[in-house]
Amino acid sequence: MEKTYSSVPAGAERMAPIVCPVCGESKTSPYWDCGDFLIKKCRGCGHLYQNPQPVFGDLKNRYQDSYFDYEISNEEAFFRLMLLGLEDVGFPEWEEKLKTAGAFLDIGCATGCLLASMQGRGWKVQGVEICDPSAQYGIKKRGVPVFIGPLEDAPFPPASFSLVHFSHLIEHVPDPRRLLARVYELLVPGGAAIIVTPNRAGFQARLLKKKWRSCIADHLNLFDKKGLGRIIGETGFSIVKTQTWGGIAAGLAPAFIKKPLDRMAKKFGFGDVMLFHVHKAGT
Ligand SMILES: [Zn+2]
């Protein structure tokens, strides 16, 4: 089975050791040796993360033309999954109240599918995308506003947004706590965020270990519910709902096994991808 896309790390990337992004501990144990990169297990909290990591100035060079090719060829599939995730957390039921309280921000908006869809539902929208050709595509072909660069460079005033979405992004960033803190700052009181990331405590990760499709060079952090839940909570958010889905990837099992396994993964929380619906206190 194919892994999800990963840009091949350039040999010239500068690497640096880091401390655990979840608990700050520096001691680790070896976990998965993936050749080009090493996944370590934090001795403090059990979080899995790459250590050492490429420095950010080199890391962002990965997200260029070939990343655009990957995003454009998968945009419909990714968009469908994003809609399913939003439906799972009852989005249409709480959408109206938020729509009047601020704008929608999609961080890592790729080619802008979700932004265009939300705009069509009456939202004021804004995207952030580090991959220049993907962002340009969204701006020119879909007419949606996209800031090109990392979120920390975007000049948005605090309390600009009532809903922030970031799907398959937090595992790519070197400092997930900083990302969450900035999202918190950008939300209005009472605002919400939807966070989607691979679940390393899911069935597929447990079965396939370092051959798991989400164990790739671009994923610096491999979260489980406990680790991600911890940094979300410590940022100040309350967790409204969590959900996992995807029992086994298509191609790994016949349909009569895949279908019930997918249902069970969702029910019991061992799905391959997890979603957190979180809330900032306030009215
Ligand atoms: Zn830790």
Quick summary:
The chain is α/β, with parallel strands linked by helices and 283 residues long. It contains ten helices and 13 strands.
Account of the 3D structure:
The chain has 283 residues and is of the alpha/beta class. It has one domain: Vaccinia Virus protein VP39 (Rossmann fold). The chain is 34% helix and 24% strand. The chain has a seven-stranded mixed β-sheet, sandwiched between helices. A four-stranded antiparallel β-sheet has the order 2-3-4-11, with no helix packed on it. A hairpin with a 4-residue loop joins strand 2 and strand 3. The longest helix has 14 residues. It is globular, with a radius of gyration of 18 Å. The model has no long low-confidence stretch (mean pLDDT 88). Zinc ion (ZN) binds next to loops. Zinc ion binds next to loops.
